Amino acid sequence: MSQSDSSARGTPAVVLLSGGLDSTTTLAIAKSQGFELYALSFRYGQRHLLELQSAREVALQMGVREHIVLDVDLRKFGGSALTDDIAVPKGNAPIGRGIPITYVPARNTVFLSLALAWAEILASHDIFIGVNALDYSGYPDCRPEYIAAFERMANLATRAAIEGGQPLTIHTPLIQLSKAQIIARGVELGVDYASTSSCYDPAEDGRPCGECDSCRLRGKGFAELGLPDPLLQRFELE
Predict the structure, then answer these.
(1) Contacts of 72 (CB under 8 A, 6+ apart)
(2) Is the whole model's pTM more than 0.85, yes or no?
(3) Which of 91, 101, 128, 160 could disulfide-link to 171, CB 3.0 to 4.6 Å?
């Protein structure tokens, strides 16, 4: 699990891109390190499907070499407020106490496995994912020990592992950053946060609800920096 800032000199990297604040910042970091960007997004039955519009916009802005949106219908399983007919929790309930109903079972494992498959095809040894273990909602597949375990597994599961090639690295540049630190890093890299979408239950036009865990964490980050959220400003101007 690497957080190196050394230049990658145009080598390919697969970046998981939801279109949200964290994954967009992660994409910008990979770009700043010199990687050739291959973005992977998922249409997985999420209620906040509008995030994919943001992912496409972000990919274009960042000069991504190729952006693939895969269909993986996790709504067939349900079990989450994001993929089932369960209300998204809103209000002032404490964040990070227990595993919330917005957790999608095994989502990052599914996504990382498919990213690994594409990385093999691209002869890439680098996958980026914007997981965070500080300002997050208690998801078990955002923890450092989970990422480390997946990386070990990945390095047993590939052709390169058998043939003695370069090992795969799962890059988690945000994992020990607060939301405010993530935003500050993105601002430094010129990220257009007006193009991102974080809300779990947005209006049809993409306007965030402002009350779900994801909206509250995003708002907290901008507030701690004393900055307005460009996404909210965009809607105010419309």
Answers:
(1) 42, 43, 44, 110, 114
(2) yes
(3) 128
Domain count for the chain, please give it.
1
Token digits for 224? Answer: 């701690």
Residue 124 near residue 11, CB atoms below 8 Å: yes
Count helices and strands (H / E) in the chain. Answer: 8, 5
Range name among 12-21, 135-144, 221-230 with the lowest pLDDT average: 135-144
149: left (phi over 0), alpha (psi -120 to 50) or beta: alpha
Please name the amino acid found at residue 211. Answer: E
Q: What is the CATH number of the domain that holds 227?
A: 3.40.50.620
Of 214, 234, 224, nearest to 46 by C-alpha is: 214
Identify which of 146, 136, 152 has the alpha carbon closest to the alpha carbon of residue 98: 136
On the question of pLDDT at 42 being above 50, the answer is yes
194 within some domain: yes
Q: What is the pLDDT of residues 88-135, one digit of tens each?
A: 999 876 665 678 899 999 999 999 999 999 999 999 999 999 999 876
Q: Under a CB-based contact definition with an 8 Å cutoff, are residues 28 and 186 in contact? A: yes
Question: 109: which residues sit within 8 A by CB, 6+ positions away?
Answer: 141, 150
- Express each pLDDT in 137-151 by its tens digit: 678 999 999 999 999
Kindly calculate the radius of gyration of the chain based on its CA atoms and give it in whole angstroms: 17
Query: Domain of 209?
Result: 12-237
